Structure formats: structure tokens, C-alpha cells
Amino acid sequence: MTHFRNLRKPAILKWASSCFFENQLNPPVFVMGSFHLSQRQNPRFYRSKGSAVAVKREVLEAPKIPQATLKEAQAALLEYLHWTRSIPFMDAENMSKNSPHFLRNLLKKVNIVKDVRSSMARFLRYRPINEFEPSFESLGFKPWEYTPLLPRNLMFLSDDSLFFENYRVLCQFGIERNKIGRIYKKAIQVFQLESGALPLKLQAYQELVLSHSFMVKIIVCSPCVLIGDIDMKFIKVLEILRSMGFDNAWVQEHLSDQDSYNWGLILRVLSIFSEMFCGNELVRLISQHPGLLFEGSGYATFSLVGFLLKFGLPIDQISSMFLQFPKIQVQQFVSNLIKCFVFFHEIEMEVDWIAKLVCSYTVLLGSCRLKKTNSLLSNLNVGKKRLCKYIQENPQELSKWVIGLRIVPLPDSGENIESKRLKMKFLLDLGYGENPNMMNKAFKVFRGRGGELQERFDSIVNAGLDKADVSEMVTVSPQILNQSKTVIQSKIDILVNELGYPLSSLVSFPSFLSYTTQRVRLRMAMYNWLKDHKKAEPDLALSTIVACSDKIFLNQYVNHHPSGPRVWQDLKAKLSMDK
């Protein structure tokens, strides 16, 4: 765990979040990369996030078209596309039957005189449509998805001969029309291939003895294999899997139309696994958990290995973890692991203990979908310090704190009972014993163990105030004891030695101890500057300077001098740097 100890806790958390927690949901592979690249290279397309959101809202809120009206509208659009625009019948029929949003918008513009069909025919005779809209919708795009992709200066499909030709090639090859939109999103370059190039690419793959049904699946899932020469990384992955007994039918079974695949990354995962496992172990692992390879092209797996190496976990222990991998999606496992890591950080667990738990209980942490930290602290009825100790002694208990299970509060420990006794004594000494309701409220207001509260109280008395005055201060502002003894002492030191106020100022303004030192220093520095420039009264009360909101302080004091706002920002920046 040497590497882990060398990192400060905030650095570890930042690293884990940026490199892992976000990326495992959005792998930095070319799942959508080719699409974004083509957008930059092809100025015909434009993107408008606002318009896409508006379209989505419109579609979701739009009423359904009556069935009879829909059929007439479809028939009119089919006639127009096939007979007027000379689009092949099968393509025209697909467009007319699978573009309800386009038809709904079209019907809004048509003045229905006798019947829908003839009225639409008359409308289309004089007002040509943007044929890419029903075309894209019929390819499986949602309206809000295709809106940003519409060609800027084109209306007719015949204006983009390459798009239409390559679309027809894919249809003839056996790709379902409503899945072609996915190919377009993942690899628009396929539709920009020169005339005759796409059939040759398909033929080249078939000559490698890859079945027709297998290639149909691959093209929908991973159309990037059609860009450039034959994807040798894809072929290499198939060869390796075949050598382990996994044929193409097995690969086809475990690919999803909804995903894209980076065969280079899958190949790297296979290469890492081949170094970590013997032949039989690797075959068994992939057979039981194909998602290690195919979920996000193995990116979550790749990142998980890197994450554990960062914690100093040896390769043989990482291998053992994979052999015990639970029946859970890899990305969910990764997400659970990171959430446990963040949970440990939020309850202020020591860095070395976090490393020990992550390394020793990786499978457990990856299997637990923990509830949020605040929820656990509340339902377990426990403080952070005790919770850290409890987890360190009983790590398996984490499995009982997952989403969907009822949380049982932790039993009172001997220390907790003693703490409650001391807290009760402290509150009785303050005079809360006469009213049970006041006592219950006080228990919630005063945070900390009984001994700690007394220690904080005594630190104020020992600074030089009368015990009765401090009791009154705590009654008025109980929150002043909800901070450590050290923090209280440092604030008193600032008040007396840095700002030059008498200690007795706390009696009339006890909540001074509740404000941050940065706020107090900023307000006092600004007040002194204003006082020097004759823009503030020289004897303002400390509470007047510190307690009001920033908005009021700026309006009533800072803005009274032309340079006030600039000085305020300069002081704020300086104090932030000194912090």
C-alpha cells in the first residue's frame, strides 16, 4: 500500500472521481468518437441543444393521431415519396409508416378540406418537404436525436447520393431499417464511403469465413469495423476467443445493439488477462462473466485493475478477486466500489484503513450498493468516529446497509452510554433539567460527547470569563459548543490578540464563536479600511460588523466608497490564498 500512503486523502478522492467514477460511465473510447469527429469535418450538420430539448418536450406532450387519420396521411406521404420523388417503394413505405412525429407536424400545416389524403396530396404538390426528417425518423432516431443531424442546406435524399446508396447497401445486406440510425450515430463515415466501396468491405469480411448473421450483428453493434481497412484488432479478438473455445455465435450472443465496441481495448483486456490467469482459469472466468470483456469494451475492467494497482494490491490478489467476481454487471461493481470509497472518505476514515478495506474486501465493497452517508449516519444513530471503528471491526456489516434494506440502529456501546450520562449531567448543570421537552431539544442541539462538551465549555471559562456568563452564552447560542476545543481557543485568540477586542465582548455577542475565521477577518479588514477612509462609524459593534449578511454588508458599508467593491474582492482573494 506504499503508493496509496504517499497520496493525501483529497488527492486520492479527486483522482478516483475524475479518472474512474465519471469515466466508467463514459469510457474514453471511440464509441461515439467517430460521430463527433465527423461532425467537425462535415459542415452540413449542425447541433442545437436547445432545439433538441424543445423537440423532445413537444414529442412527449403531443396527442396521438387518430388511427384513421394516420393511415390516410401515411398513404398520401407514400404516394408523394414514391410517385413524385421517385424513391423506391420499399424505402418510401418505410418512411411513411415509421415517421409519426413528422406526420403529426405535417398535418398541423395542412388545411383539411374534404379528406386527409387528398388535402395532404394537394399540400405536398406545392410545398416540398425535407425528406431527411421522415427518413431519419424511420431509421430509428427519436425526433430530438435527429434534429441536430439534419443537413443544413439539403432537402432531398437524392441530393446526398452517397448516403442513399450506402443506406441501400446496408438494407440489402440484411440490416433492419430501424437499426440503421444506430449505425449512423456511431459511424457516420460509413454513409460517406465512395460509391461501390461498402459492398467490397462487406465482401472482404465474408471472405474471412464470418457468417452473414454474425456480420449483421457486428455492423449494428460496431460499425467502425467498416471504416478503413479490415479491423485486424477485431479479427485478433475473434481468433483469441476461438482458441479458448468461444465461437462467433457465442460472441454474437453477448453483444448488444445498444452498445458500441472498441476492439482494441477488448484486445488489451484479453492481453492483461492472459498474463494474470492460466488457460483454464481464463476460460472459466470469461464464460461466467463475459461482461468483463464486452461491457463498455472492457473499460470498466481495465480501470478496475488500474484502480487496485494504485492501491498497491498485488497482481495475484487482483487475479483472486476476479475469480471470486459476483454475478453483477462490471460497471455496477465499479460504481459500488467507488461509492464505498467515497463513503469511507466522508466519515473521515484514516487513509491507511481505507486502503486496507479496499484491498482486503474488494469483492464485498463491489457487491454493496450503499445508501448515502447522511442516511446511514442518521439511521444507524451513530457518529463518524464510532462508525469508522465499527466498520474496521465488522466490515461484513456493510452488506446490511445497502439500498433496499431496512437499517437497524447500532446498539449502544459502553462508551456511548457513558457519553450520554456525561452529556445529561452537563445539560442539567446548565439548567435544562426542569423541562423534559427542553432537555430533548438540547440533546439534539448540542453535538458531541458529554466529556467533549464539558471540555469545550471549560475552555471558554478558562480563557477568563465567569462561569455564569458562559452558561448564559451557551443558552443563547448553543451552537458555539458544536466545534472542537482547539477551534474555540483559536477564535478567542483572534478576537483578543488579533482584532484587539476585550474578552467580555463574547458575553454580549456569543455567536461570534460560530462564524468562520475567514469571515471575521474579511469583515474586520474591510471595516478598518472603510473607517480609515471616513466611510464607516468608528465605534460600530462587533455584532453589527460580523453578523449581517454579505448583501447587507456590501450595500450598507462596502458600496459607500467607489473603490469599496474592488478592495473587498482583493481582501477576499488575499485571505483565500492565506487560508
From TrEMBL:
Pfam families: mTERF (PF02536). GO terms for molecular function: nucleic acid binding. GO terms for biological process: DNA-templated transcription termination. InterPro entries: MTERF, MTERF_sf. Coiled coil: none annotated. It comes from the Eukaryota. Keywords: Transcription, Transcription regulation, Transcription termination, Transit peptide. The keyword Transcription applies. Belongs to the mTERF family. This is Transcription termination factor MTEF18, mitochondrial-like. It comes from Gossypium darwinii. The lineage of its organism: Eukaryota, Viridiplantae, Streptophyta, Embryophyta, Tracheophyta.
